[in-house]
Every structure is written in C-alpha cells, then in structure tokens.
C-alpha cells in the first residue's frame, strides 16, 4: 500500500514533537524509531530515539527527564495500554479521529 498521505515536515523536527502532536505523522519517523521493524514501538525504542535526538542536538538529560516524556507519549498514543504504540495507534494508516 503506497497510498500514504504526503506529509510535509519541517527539517529535522524533534521526534517527540511528532508523537506529542495530533497533527500529521510520518511513516519515516515511525520506521526510524521502530528499530526491529516489528511495526510496534516499544518504550525502549522510543526512549532510545528520544535520547539520540536530544544528544544529537547537544543536549543531555537524565533518565527521569526522558521517562516523563515517555509517560506523556504513551499516555496520549498507547490507546489500548499494552505498553506499545502500534502503527495504527500512531495513526499512520488511518485517521480515525481529530
Ligand atoms: Ca519495534
Ligand atoms: Ca498499544
């Protein structure tokens, strides 16, 4: 299926913004975070990516900082509360709300 909506992203958006916002979400961002390509994002995967994004920008934070962001991300995105964000929950494949 190649009928994903074309999404315009600003260059190098902080990844957590893509999770936070209920705006357009990008397949590329999802794939980038989903390191084992099993189509779900675990807390570990999201955390690793968060860390990388921040450290790339020259900012290092302690674990607690990332955990708080993760809590927020999962609170907003993990609708069935199984501790993982599926592609559907990430809203790539369908937009069933807003
Ligand atoms: Ca995964
Ligand atoms: Ca879930």
Kindly name the structural category: mainly alpha
- The tally of strands reads 2
CATH arch. level architecture of the domain at 25-90: Orthogonal Bundle
Shape: globular
* Gap from first CA to last CA: 23 Å
User: Uncertain regions: pLDDT < 50 for 5+ in a row?
Assistant: 6-13
3D architecture notes:
InterPro entries: EF-hand-dom_pair (IPR011992), EF_Hand_1_Ca_BS (IPR018247), EF_hand_dom (IPR002048), PPIase_FKBP (IPR052273). This is peptidylprolyl isomerase. The chain has a domain at 25-90: EF-hand (Recoverin, domain 1, Orthogonal Bundle), CATH 1.10.238. With 98 residues, it is mainly alpha-helical. Strands 1-2 form a two-stranded antiparallel sheet. It contains five helices and two strands. It has helices at residues 15-20, 27-33, 43-56, 63-77, 87-90; strands at 40-42, 84-86. The protein is globular, with a radius of gyration of 13 Å. The longest helix is centred in the last third of the chain and has 15 residues, at 63-77. It binds calcium ion (2 copies).
